[in-house]
């Protein structure tokens, strides 16, 4: 465990300081990005901005902003402070990385409620879904950012198969459909989601992107494909981005049955499934501590604490596909966070 001690700190003082620093910086980075502060500093180039200028430009409380900026400037290299002016620091490019944005949106914006409510949840004084719940917009945005490194591969594979219309199951705010349609002119999309609120946001996003003529949206329960099958005669492929594992809360048989129904209703259509290849405890121990933290949070914090279906290994997914009669054509498994893409056919 030498690597763990080096990363976490060699003594109790540095270890506890890392706890305070990590949680504080995570919340600061999330809030300042969402408030538009980092974007204002990007526009400022090397000139920087004073706290008064940033507060006025972004419509923020000056006192709170000053404390947040000063802490981050003195505790991290992504921000700097000189003569009362704040500028982006030596490692500012980290702020724009997909890893940073995805983790910030998902783990802080989306799932921080799990940890802030953990004590009463452990004592069974509160329950997720009744007393507190994740904000869906943050989850949708974070999932899109965290997985879009695989989208060019998906678009390329669909193009090679001659797919011209793809349906996104659980489309949320339609970020994925907008992305893939921008990557491949001529591709058309259909978004399916059970939430009327999500579809309102999706329509706004699609219109804003100028893609209303290429993306249509349908309200429907993904687990009841018979209800929306009549609207998908032109669809040649389905995309399920971190959707199917949600239904594992009802057991693997429920996912097998869903895929069987889709195979009956959409024979010969293609299926693209993006899921996390869940490691065993022994596999986790082979990863350096920094690398394993992201995956541990996803597998052992997010899912059990929000009562979702738990992630499973790609080997178990293959068994589910076999039982459902889904032919797997190819698997993309080179993502550093074990985000695998399964390309199959009903």
Please tally the β strands and state the result.
10
Helicity range: 40-55%
Tell me the CATH topology of the largest domain: Rossmann fold
CATH class of the largest domain: Alpha Beta
Terminus-to-terminus distance:
46 Å
Largest sheet: 7 strands, mixed
Find the CATH superfamily of the largest domain. Answer: Vaccinia Virus protein VP39
Strand numbers in spatial order across the main sheet: 6-5-4-7-8-10-9
Output the number of helix runs.
16
Work out the count of structural domains: 2
Our estimate of the beta-strand percent is: 5-15%
The coarse overall form would be globular
Report mean pLDDT, rounded to a whole number. 93
Rg, nearest Å: 22 Å
Q: Assembly state here?
A: single chain
Q: Name the structural class.
A: alpha/beta
The name of the CATH architecture of the largest domain is 3-Layer(aba) Sandwich
Q: What is the ordering of alpha helices and beta strands? A: HHHEHHEEHHHHHEHEHEEHEHHHEE
Structure, described:
- This protein is of the alpha/beta class.
- The protein folds into 2 domains: 2-95, Arc Repressor Mutant, subunit A, CATH 1.10.10; 146-345, Vaccinia Virus protein VP39 (Rossmann fold), CATH 3.40.50.
- The protein is built from 16 helices and 10 strands.
- The strands form 2 sheets. The protein has a 7-stranded mixed beta sheet with strand order 6-5-4-7-8-10-9, with helices on both faces.
- Helix 2 crosses helix 6 (98-110) and helix 6 packs antiparallel against helix 9 (136-147).
- The protein starts with a helix and ends with a strand.
- Residues 1-6 have low confidence and may be disordered.
């Amino acid at each position: 465990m030498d690597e763990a001690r080096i990363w976490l700190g060699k003594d109790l003082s540095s270890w506890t300081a890392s706890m305070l620093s990590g949680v504080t910086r995570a919340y600061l980075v999330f809030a300042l990005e969402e408030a538009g502060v980092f974007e204002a500093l990007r526009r400022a180039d090397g000139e920087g901005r004073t706290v008064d200028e940033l507060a006025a430009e972004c419509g923020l409380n000056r006192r709170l902003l000053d404390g947040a900026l000063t802490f981050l400037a003195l505790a991290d290299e992504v921000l700097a402070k000189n003569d009362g002016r704040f500028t982006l620091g030596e490692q500012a490019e980290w702020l724009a990385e997909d890893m940073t944005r995805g983790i910030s949106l998902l783990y802080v914006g989306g799932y921080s409620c799990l940890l802030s409510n953990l004590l009463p949840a452990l004592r069974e004084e509160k329950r997720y879904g009744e007393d507190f719940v994740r904000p869906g917009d943050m989850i949708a945005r974070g999932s899109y950012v965290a997985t879009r490194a695989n989208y060019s591969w998906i678009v390329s594979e669909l193009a090679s198969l001659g797919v011209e219309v793809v349906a996104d199951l659980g489309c949320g705010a339609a970020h994925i459909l907008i992305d893939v349609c921008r990557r491949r002119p001529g591709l058309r999309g259909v978004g399916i989601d059970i939430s009327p609120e999500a579809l309102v946001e999706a329509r706004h996003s699609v219109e804003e992107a100028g893609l209303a003529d290429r993306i249509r949206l349908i309200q429907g329960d993904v687990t009841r494909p018979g209800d929306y099958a009549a609207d998908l005669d032109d669809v040649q492929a389905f995309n399920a981005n971190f959707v199917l594992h949600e239904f594992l809360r009802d057991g693997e048989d429920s996912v097998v049955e869903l895929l069987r129904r889709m195979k009956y209703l959409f024979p010969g259509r293609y299926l693209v499934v993006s899921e996390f290849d869940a490691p065993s405890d022994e596999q986790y121990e082979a990863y350096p501590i920094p690398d394993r933290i992201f995956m541990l949070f996803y597998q052992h914090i997010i899912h059990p604490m929000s009562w979702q279906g738990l992630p499973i290994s790609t080997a178990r997914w293959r068994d589910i596909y076999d039982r459902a009669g889904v032919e797997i054509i190819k698997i993309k498994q080179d993502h550093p966070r074990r985000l695998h893409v399964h390309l199959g056919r009903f």
